[in-house]
Amino acid sequence: MQSMTQSIKILIVDANPVRAAIIEEGLREAGSHEIVRVGGTNGLVAAIELHDPDVVVIDLEDPSRDALADMFLVSRHVRRPITMFVDQSDSASIEAAVEAGVSAYIVDGLKKERMQAILQTCISRFNAFRKLREELDEARSQLEERKLIDRAKGIVMRMKNLPEEEAYALLRRTAMNEKRKLVDIARSIITAAEVLK
What we know:
The chain is of the alpha/beta class. It folds into two domains: 8-110, Response regulator (Rossmann fold, 3-Layer(aba) Sandwich), CATH 3.40.50; 137-196, Orthogonal Bundle (Arc Repressor Mutant, subunit A), CATH 1.10.10. Helix content is 60%, strand content 14%. Strand 3 (55-61), helix 3 and strand 4 (82-86) form a beta-alpha-beta unit.
């Protein structure tokens, strides 16, 4: 994701042309960004796919539960920083917006002078959460691989009557000799053991 020092493509979603103009003017003053406007949230995923923006700025004034549910679907599908401007809110709406993946939820703050700071916060927060999500996915993947290797090691220990260290060394040697990953060898052993049951 690009930072605000680079030119970025921004999709403004706003049914109110006056409010959309305030957002656009503030964004233009904040930098030389490519800005695309759409008039509402209907077909938003398609609009995002069509225009491929770096950031999505949505002005809903008073978001309904349905609108927040739509944002949840959009954010899960498109994985972009989303800034949402609203005029009124309550704690349930804020919580729903955050759960929906909205990176910056701005209540009663539609002022063009604030656009650059809000957009930078949105991008930074999105990048931080993306990094955490990637780290979590990597940790889960490593844990799953570790479980597979341990299971294969147990199979080798039983079949060859080897202690744990020797079974693991045999798996490693096999992986190196076959120029394959240890987890791939483990999967092959588990599959073979299932077939031979």
